[in-house]
Fold Oxidoreductase.
Amino acid sequence: MNKKIAIIGGGIVGASAAYYLSSLPGGDQFNVTLFDAGAGQATKAAAGIISPWLSKRRNQQWYQLAKDGATTLMTLARRANLSTDIYHQTGTIITRTNEKDLHDLFILAQERRQDAPDMGTVERLTAAEVKERIPLLTNPQPGIYISGGARIDGEALVTTLLDQAQQVNLTVKRGKVSLDNQGNLITATGQQRFDEIIIAAGPWLNELVEPLGIKVAVRPQKGQLIELAVPDYGSQENMPVLMPEGERDFIPFGHGKLIVGATHDDEAGFNLTATPAATQDLLNSARQFADYLTEGDITRTKVGTRAYTPDFAPFFGRLKGHPKLLVAGGLGASGLTTGPLIGRLLAGTIIYGGTPDWSNYEKPLTNYFS
Ligand SMILES: Cc1cc2nc3c(=O)[nH]c(=O)nc-3n(C[C@H](O)[C@H](O)[C@H](O)COP(=O)(O)OP(=O)(O)OC[C@H]3O[C@@H](n4cnc5c(N)ncnc54)[C@H](O)[C@@H]3O)c2cc1C
């Protein structure tokens, strides 16, 4: 009889785990059910930048995970036949106003490329060359271009992965579920038996594991972004993503759509209401680079909740003392980059068994659980 697997959470981690459980060799021996409450999902609200290589973060495990995550996405795009509306390797441009900062960044890029060939080519661009590649800009700055960088549409990606998995061995159920104090899954109609459960519930992880007497060091953070209607440059739909100094990025999605984001609001926690102040702040950031943008160009605002650990690094693996439970969380601001790899590793553990050593990617799970 096929083993029954449950996944709680249909964001990038849950959807990737479901996809790999349906497509890795041996996955067809499982019946998989994914439960998703939907609201607040960070994956649907995300900006979609995949470009971890020039991060200044010192956490080597995070860097390995993000670097290999970017590579996993490249392979996933081919394997799942993703359209360029969902995943597009447009390249990224990181700009700096200070000449020395730009020089240092270029040196760092060349160093990092030594063991990250998927970064592709690295070029120094003048402000005029940046403008040539992103004609939307009125005030371009000089920058570093990395051809391996990409943008993804998180919502469309999870929809596609779940659609493909549903054609094999996945059932998707909308709605909130919980766990009892033995780790059994409880739905609106009562307890359901599963052989293994992946908990990929983003910042809601604490709520789920509370009945087990477990506390996880994960906190919520509100993130907001804006979508704007911009001139449609027809033949230039492949504009690179722009990452200027600071936290606001500029993601041209082609077909006259631009995303600018995102905010990082630690005080607002799980609040999902877009605020006019955050919208104005994002618009002001956008206007620094494209001065013609007005409030009237805003077509949509999106809000999601990120999950952060104290060291800003994700964790994932089998929960100690609860052999049928696997968890993933704390993906923070780079979860679209790391999520597919985490989903693949969790799916692989279920299919092939064993206790893999992931110490090159994460600290021990006990660092985050008490
Ligand atoms: C504004 C914003 C911009 C971002 N930009 C980027 C970016 O450019 N690049 C990048 O790499 N990352 C980015 N991120 C981060 C990235 O989106 C997240 O780290 C990632 O999506 C987290 O994925 P997840 O699967 O862990 O959680 P989520 O996507 O939050 O999914 C968790 C799911 O679990 C469900 N759930 C929770 N509890 C239950 C329950 N009891 N029962 C059923 N379902 C439940 C929720 O409803 C939700 O759908 C951004 C995030 C935000 C908010």
Observations:
- The chain has two domains: 3-44+155-218+311-367, 92-147+220-306.
